[in-house]
Design goal:
Elements: H1 22-44, H2 54-60, H3 63-80, H4 92-98, H5 101-114, E1 119-124, E2 129-133, E3 145-150, H6 157-160, H7 164-175, H8 178-185
Antiparallel strand pairs: 1-2, 1-3
Helix pairs in contact: 1-3, 2-3, 4-5, 5-7
Bound molecules: manganese (II) ion (MN).
Length: 186
């Protein structure tokens, strides 16, 4: 049985303001992630998935079980990658791969804006920026994520309404924990 407490935030709920408000964290982490966890628990109870790791469930399931398991993984990964003003040490490998910090930000923003409807934008270990729709996740496709941005409307609507671009800018400039990204490269 998974619980929200198994996916603790590493920051106080008001620590990311004004870029991500406490109210957004209360809904996004406290309600949306909690619902995915509870849904997953209900779906896997009494099935072969009950004894599997979250990653193994994602790799071997489909439909509702996949969607909820992937959303649990995606949200945990997203929240672990956040830190206010954590941008002092953007890894050199990223700067080299994209031709500079600004070019990386520009490409990431373009990709995040291109997601139609709900989905995610990722930087993967092979230095590619990719997007996934709805709950889909790179680990289901053998790709290693380094960083993700949730671009479902629930991630930004309370703080930015329909201005997804402003949310992407705030994320890239003020909310990425580059130490988290560097650690995922190892
Ligand atoms: Mn979300």
């Amino acid at each position: 049985m998974l619980t929200l407490e198994q996916f603790p935030l590493k920051f106080a709920r008001d620590a990311l303001a004004p870029y991500m408000s406490e109210e957004t964290i209360n809904y996004h982490y406290g309600k949306h992630l909690d619902t995915y966890i509870k849904n997953l628990n209900g779906l896997i109870a009494g099935t072969k998935y009950e004894s599997m790791s979250l990653n193994d469930i994602i790799k071997s399931s489909e439909g509702k079980t996949f969607n909820n398991a992937a959303q649990v993984f995606n949200h945990d990964f997203f929240f672990r990658g956040l830190k206010k003003e954590g941008a002092s040490a953007i890894p050199q490998k990223i700067i080299d791969a994209f031709g500079g910090r600004d070019k990386f930000f520009e490409q990431f923003k373009t990709a995040a804006l291109s997601v139609f409807g709900s989905g995610w934008t990722w930087l993967t270990a092979d230095m590619k920026i990719i997007t996934t729709a709805n709950a889909d996740t790179p680990i289901a496709h053998g790709q290693i994520p380094l960083l993700t941005l949730d671009v479902w409307e629930h991630a930004y609507y309370l703080d930015y309404q329909n201005r997804r671009g402003d949310f992407i800018d705030a994320f890239l400039n003020h909310l990425v924990d580059w130490d988290f990204v560097a650690n995922n490269m190892e």
